UniProtKB/TrEMBL annotation:
A Pfam family hit: His_Phos_1
GO cellular component: cytoplasm
UniProt superkingdom: Bacteria
Phylogenetic lineage: Bacteria, Bacillati, Actinomycetota, Actinomycetes, Kitasatosporales
The organism of origin for this protein: Streptomyces swartbergensis
Xref: SMART domains: PGAM
UniProt cross-references to InterPro entries, sorted A to Z: His_Pase_superF_clade-1, His_PPase_superfam, PGM_Phosphatase
Protein's recorded name: Histidine phosphatase family protein
Gene3D superfamilies found in the cross-reference section: Phosphoglycerate mutase-like
């Protein structure tokens, strides 16, 4: 018989991976072969240091290389094996493998416009509702593995923002420029028993993030493409 109670407090930190080496400006999506840059590795190390004193008993990441590489120093700092959960993967996107930005790349081609007709679903990729379902299930699984302690979950910007929006009862469609989910940030869900009771947000590596990539930053010409997250 389980001795777990509804008073158990479990903390699940959902981390966005660090900066990726992507000199060609490709929206990499779920493509393999995209690794952290040197700056991205510094971001991962910074967050590992930030979490070193926390009661972390479980670390899990998306199967994509950039997420695995971000999670590795955190798992190592706590003497844990790194787990993988396919449900934490980046959102599917029809523009994967292309350059994508206002005024250039995929948006200039009329053949792609049909994919931009419904931002509420969205029409260009994995439905927001599907992202909510898989991310909520992944977070719940991490919570169960770390019951009464803390877990670190490494995923990608859009799925993280969508599941946070769902929990905070905001509409799922949104302006991508206004997502509060900077590189190497932590979106923290606190559970009492099996119920989420609070959501927090921190940026332990904020000083390492290029200014134009911080949440709410104004677009910079030549640096505002959505390369994948």
């Amino acid at each position: 018989m389980s001795n777990e109670t509804n008073d158990d407090i479990t903390v699940v930190h959902v981390m966005r991976h660090g900066e990726v080496a992507n000199p060609d400006g490709i929206l990499y999506g779920r493509l393999p072969g995209y690794h952290l840059s040197e700056l991205g590795r510094r971001m991962a190390d910074r967050v590992a240091e930030h979490l070193a004193s926390r009661d972390v008993t479980y670390v899990v990441a998306s199967p994509l290389e950039r997420a695995q590489e971000t999670a590795e120093p955190i798992a190592k700092a706590h003497g844990l094996d790194l787990a993988t959960d396919e449900r934490l993967i980046e959102a599917g996107n029809i523009f994967q493998g292309k350059t994508f930005g206002v005024g250039d790349g995929a948006l200039r081609k009329p053949g792609n416009w049909k994919h931009l007709l419904n931002p509420f679903r969205p029409s260009w990729g994995e439905p927001y509702v599907d992202q909510v379902v898989r991310m909520m299930n992944a977070l719940s699984a991490a919570k169960d593995r770390a019951r009464g302690h803390e877990a670190v979950v490494v995923s990608h910007q859009l799925p993280i923002w969508i599941v946070r929006s769902y929990v905070e009862r905001r509409r799922l469609w949104h302006d991508p420029r206004k997502r509060q989910c900077t590189l190497a940030s932590l979106t923290t869900f606190t559970y009492r028993g099996d119920r989420i009771v609070s959501v927090g947000y921190t940026e332990p590596a904020r000083d390492l993030v290029p200014a134009h990539l911080l949440a709410g930053a104004k677009p910079v010409k030549g640096k505002d493409k959505a390369f994948g997250a």
